[in-house]
Design goal:
12 strands, two-stranded antiparallel ribbon, 18 helices, binds iron/sulfur cluster
Amino acid sequence: MKRRDFIINSALAVGGAALLSGCSKKEIKKAQNQVVRRKFDNTDTPLIALGCMRLPMRNGKIDMVELDKMVEYAMAHGANYFDTAYMYVEGKSENAIGEVLKKYPRESFILADKCPAYLVNKPEDVRRLFEEQLKKCQVEYFDNYMVHNINQNTLSNYRDNDMYGEILKLKKEGKIKHLGFSFHGDPQMLKEVINEHKWDFCQLQLNYLDWEVVNADDLYQIADEAGVPVIVMEPLRGGVLCNLPEKAVQTLKEKCPNDTQASFGLRWVAGKERVFTILSGMSNLQQVKENIDTFVNYREFSKEEEKVAHEIAQIIQSQGAISCTACKYCMEVCPRGINIPAIFGLYNMYKGSTQPNRSFMFVYNYKALKESEKADKCIDCKLCNKNCPQNLDIPELLKTVAKEVKEAEKGMA
Ligand code: SF4
Ligand code: SF4
């Protein structure tokens, strides 16, 4: 897209219908292909945003050509919100998205970043990390900036080092526009955190599975009662809700034939009124196109569809799947390089399958992992547990998977 076209599209996205009068037919058509937006503190924010946690990879590196196409497509359709973090893609996400976004006017995109609470050991660390992040992203300010991942392990870092106060100083200096936090603790902790300061927004893990079987309903209600706007992370639970068990796929096909697994999950989240944007970690242009299509042709979630979501959540729960979102935070601290998300992903696929060859596929795919990455190489040091936002007991679950691989293998003999 030429820069002139881009500016026209951006103006249409930001300015809305008032700017459309006087535009040629072709330009109006472009405007009709914009994603729906919601108001957040007088900012017109796209309801779908590009999460930069699972960027496209090629030969072990971020695929910058694909990322460039993804951003261009998103910008052209008004999906101009990008969310990154210090630790995403082993610390390379910020550089990558900064490199791609630098060709666009700064005011044309919304950029969110986060201060890693687990790396803050004294108040001065906040500013040091922040300045580093600005440089990596090649910007002068962040639109939204968060204390990243408040949970039972990081709560003391956040409180003892006055991370809120330090970030508030940055806001007063005009280096961030809005101050929030992302959260992976329990409802009681959220109540405390949300009420101890004046937050512009919070970022919560919200999807129909967590709503049914964990505590996302309680978390949302707390934010709603506190009047704090919500950004959603993991709307598809790290891919679980777009890799549904076969029985759930059938249910969705029969009852919601116009939805893909992803659009169903995203529309469910969008039905929550306090939500102003939904982060989806997209890994290729095709995913960007599909997600944007959901919000260009946006349909509200119906009461009937709520029942289908409930049914699917029950099916998933009955499979005994591990609630891993494939965030890879555990792998950053694992001294043995165990491929934890891949192992849990294979296990969940196995549990969700009704195919006669499910055991064979499970064992076959598991054996394809590198020897050094397998579950039985875990030394039970438990370092990973501290980093898991889903509070999983990872070494115990690895033992379960290793045992089930052996049983599946025996069953095949
Ligand atoms: S407990 Fe196992 S998986 Fe976890 S960090 Fe230690 S070796 Fe890695
Ligand atoms: S086990 Fe936990 S930390 Fe590791 S990838 Fe899964 S959700 Fe993330």
